[in-house]
Specification:
heterodimer, A: 538 residues, B: 485 residues, two-stranded antiparallel sheet, 2 strands
Chain lengths: 538, 485
Amino acid sequence: MSNVLSLTTFLPILGVLLLLFIPKDSKGVLRNITLAVTVVTFLVSLIILTGFQSNAEFQFVENVPWIAAGPFIMRYNIGIDGISLWLVILTTFIMPIAVLSTFTAVEEKVKEYMICLLLLETGMLGAFISLDLFLFYIFWEVMLIPMYFMIGIWGGKNKIYAAVKFFIYTMVGSLLMLVALIFLYFKGMQAGITDFGLLQFFSLKLDLATQIWLFLAFAFAFAIKVPMFPLHTWLPDAHTEAPTAGSVILAAVLLKMGTYGYVRFAIPLFPEAAHKFAPLIATLAVIGIIYAALVAMVQEDVKKLVAYSSVAHLGFVMLGVFAFNVEGITGGMLQMINHGISTGALFLIVGFIYERRHTRLITDFGGLSKQMPVFATIFMIVTFSSVGLPGTNGFVGEFLILLGAFEGQLRWWTIVATSGVILSAVYMLWVFQRVMFGELDNPKNQKLADLNTREIAIMVPLLVMIFFMGLYPKPFIDKMDPAIKKLVAQVRIAPVSAQEMSPELMQMPAAHSGIQQQGMPMPAGHPGSTLPPGHPSN
Amino acid sequence: MDMISIPVVNMTPILPEIFLSVLAMVLLLINVFKPGGQKSYLAYLSFFGILATAVLVGAGWGGYIESFSGSVVLDNFATFFKMTFLVAAGLAVLISDKYMEREECNHGELYPLILFTVVGMMLMASGTDLMTVFLGLEVMSVSLYVLAGFNRANRKSNEAGLKYFLLGAFSTGFMLYGMALIYGATGTTRLYKIAQIVGQMTLPSANILLVAGMLLMMTGFAFKIAAAPFHMWTPDVYEGAPTPMTAFMSAGPKAAGFAALLRIFLVALPTLQVEWSQVLWVLAVLTMTVGNITALRQDNIKRVLAYSSIAHAGYALVGFVAGNGTGTSGILFYMLSYAFMNIGAFAIIILVAKKGETNGNVSDFAGLAFKRPVLALVMTIFLFSLAGMPPTAGFIGKFYLFSGAIQKGYIWLAVIGVLNSAASVYYYLRIMVYMYMKESTEEFDWIQVTAPVTLALIISVAGSLIPGIIPSVILQYAQMAVKLI
């Protein structure tokens, strides 16, 4: 079973080939085959999970030549470690759920929809397992295409605007990353690196100025995907317009591409630059947390509210990751999975009521708990998970993030971010109250049916995971721990003295803007203690 | 006084040209003696003639023969480009027949003219003397002027022909003047000798004749490859010309222009590379930006692709500015893949359009995906390739073009290039938006996909996808081809 990773990644493509031979009118067959393919993919991915050794090495590695032309050598080089493992499992876990959620929601162009879903799965898995920078880029871009069509064809009223915005935003970022990628390759070539293999680049010594430029390009691409404030504006549109399964996948997996990109690429490739930018990124993350929470509070559309809550949650992830310590990154990784589960579940919940009432406005609801008790219970649990109540998965992640960030260099940021936890409780509980409690006075709501067996079956795995990860996160942490420790050791840099770095900084006007000087332990100072441009440090 | 010595002439390097010329003349004669009615057989004959020529050209791969006292050469560089021209011509022939019948301008001269164009382009690629290149260029251009105005009954086509002729003649004047000045500065028109003499000059960049000649020649070529600010003719000509000819013009002659440009500048004027790459830097940025920005606002789909074709010339110029192996092999790769994806896209446009070139707006593609899903899918592949999305040939092409620039240190040029590329995504997506996301108003029941068109589409899809997944199939040849120059 040495090819099990490739098998997992390309099984969905095999499913696509199978679907091509099914007539488009046999909707049931199409749905069932897609479901079967994603379930099988999940089962195969469990082989990876059970076979995964808890060490820091990349496992299930496959490395064969692919392109060798001119100055470039690209290889089909894949493998997973504790960091990518859970994201792969999350992807294969969410996919059957997403497919199942479309059974009644999508009636038009079922075949095309299923093909998009499967292509998307291959793209996402491929991006998580790539150890070759070029291969990663290919999967990263390929993912866009099915998502674009999913939003654009099956989306809501404003679907075209949302789809094009999603595509172009991501494209701009990734193309700049491509330039950085090529530049990095040529830099590596001078140092004797022979192909795009990621691991060799970790030992490449780049001067700070180069690191800063390259980090900026990578960070920009990933920041759009995360999305970080102020590049988040595509997300509410995309989420609101996307069909339920699209939103679920977008929230659960696609956004993780951005944070994963930081953990896997931007930070370990350019550790010194990452340290320099940590205060800026933490600031943006905290702004994102607070701002998104405030915006979420005033949303009238439940789906938009959930979308903004995504921005806030991913702000936490970024905060944890940029703490550069084991607690912070572990928390960030856990929170990525938690967010995948709980926000995925929230979008499903929104999908359930939208299917019944064809509206998502909060004011159209109220008192639903009387009519739909099962639904109310599930919604309650997911809400608790989303706000990070102890006992649910959300708590573990957020706690570790805040702990890590507080112990790291981001103490003041942490203090502000913690208020975001409260705000998230405010808007989530408030929306729950407005939808579920109160008078059941809208006649249309009085006839609503509770969740059916299929819908409950969709939610059960998510609920199980919410409690499992909340009560016993150890197996998850154990598997990722060695890889994270290795990463932390890798990005720990000897404090660079300010004198040494200032000449390079003089040539880097962009590097000045809003970056705190690093080198001294981050003072318990003011988040905004930045140096004016051109100011000689110290 | 020397005796006039007759040089030893080796005909091998120009065998494909001779073959195609003879074929073209035979076809002309057949057309004369068998007037009227069906012309499909001419299309088939041309297509198989082109196939045979491709075999002839392919057989010359790996060889190196100079002939006509060094004014023509057979090398891998020429062979690669000749293949590109033949691909463009072959695809154009396949998509012409039905179109010409529909537009009622099914005159038999079309096919010989296409073949003559190819002969001219081939001479441009293998010419190692300014005169040979110029002759090739003229053979190509004169045939193209006729092809652009081929639809006599259509006023736009007439306009296209005349406009192309006037502006083309004008640009030829520039080029010829430039060549004359270079001859004045160096005393020769042989590229290798020019390189030698320029190499011996103490300060070639101060030689006004030489530099002026170079700039004028560059202007002439900039017209031919439709680089801004010499691109004004392109949208009108591309819009007015019969669509298969537009497809052909956007792929073949552009590639020929690049072939000659590359050979002249890299072989004859490498000592002035610093100077000409500065000028080309500006041209590349202008061309990409003007092409893309203007394309954003077009409604007619032929004009969209015309401006996109300008932008693509800009991308290729990025590789030329780099002037290194990565960049130039990128140009070769890109020109070939561009032939596949662009002619493929035009083939779909031909299918969707109705008689008299109506139904040619982007909005006329509304709902195509629901009525003719396969055609829409094929068009999507071409559009993604044009936009440079992986895993298509367009992506690999751009990757190598921009890599060349980055390798040479032109980081900002590459950044401008990719930003342009991102902007271009918008207008390609717009076509997809209409195909997939708008309700159809039409039944598209007039679309008849004939066997030749199917073949052309299959070839184009394969040519847009396979090199994207396994680039080496083309790239390794492109890299061998640029090694010699």
